[in-house]
Amino acid sequence: MIREILVYPNKLLREKSVDVTQFDESLHQLLDDMYDTMLHKEGIGLAAIQIGIALNVLIINLVDEEGFQKPENLYEVINPVILEKDGHTTFQEGCLSVPGYYDEIERAAHIKVSYFDRYGTQHCKEFHDLMAIALQHEMDHLKGHLFIEKLSYLKRKKFEKDWKKQQKAGK
Ligand code: QAP
Ligand code: CO
Question: Measured from the CB, is residue 139 less than 6 Å from ligand 1?
Fold first, then answer.
């Protein structure tokens, strides 16, 4: 089922998510709904809080070299913890909760993460490149943070001004 995505400045997006304790049918339904919603909006990553569910659940589905978003490349990440971070990289990020805005954000280039899959099996894996960036972006959502909080003071001011203007225009 496609759910509604919360958009900035919705207060719920600032909420801290909590760990999943039951790897049951309702978790699977949440993951399936997140997937339907993400594909519907043409996203590559989504955190549960973006559909109003404050659980430590996120999904990432990057496109492959041919530009296809294959289901076998879907990552379902539950209760993630970053164990190691290394290096720096920047990327022009966007977010389904801040539609139409993109900017360069600096993050760690490599991360080692422990997480659970939908069946409750624990994994420990190193991630690089866009996958590492996407994971850090989505894990920020779980802590109640958005990528626009990483902008410089001046860029943030400009963003706020443009955003209000855009909202007034009814977009
Ligand atoms: C997070 O972002 C991310 O503004 C996922 O109009 C960010 O899926 C992963 C989107 C950076 C990797 C690198 C944004 C769709 C999608 C928009 C997204 C929009 C329509 C963003
Ligand atoms: Co986002």
Answer: no
pTM summary value: 0.98
Q: Is residue 130 part of a domain?
A: yes
Specify whether the CB–CB gap between 6 and 13 falls below 8 A.
yes
Question: Which among 50, 59, 91, 93 is the best mutation to test ligand 1's pocket, defined by most ligand atoms within 8 Å of the CB?
Answer: 93
Please check whether residue 44 is in contact with residue 133, taking contact to mean a CB–CB distance below 8 angstroms.
no
The answer to whether residues 7 and 99 touch, using CB atoms and an 8 Å cutoff, is yes
pLDDT digits (tens, 9 = 90+) for 94-149: 999 999 999 999 999 999 999 999 999 999 999 999 999 999 999 999 999 999 99
135 CB near ligand 1 (under 6 Å): no
Report the pLDDT averaged over residues 27-47: 98
Domain encompassing residue 114: 11-168
Name the residue with the closest Cα to ligand 1, atom 12. Answer: 134
Kindly state whether residue 6 falls inside one of the protein's structural domains: no
What are the residue numbers of the active site?
138
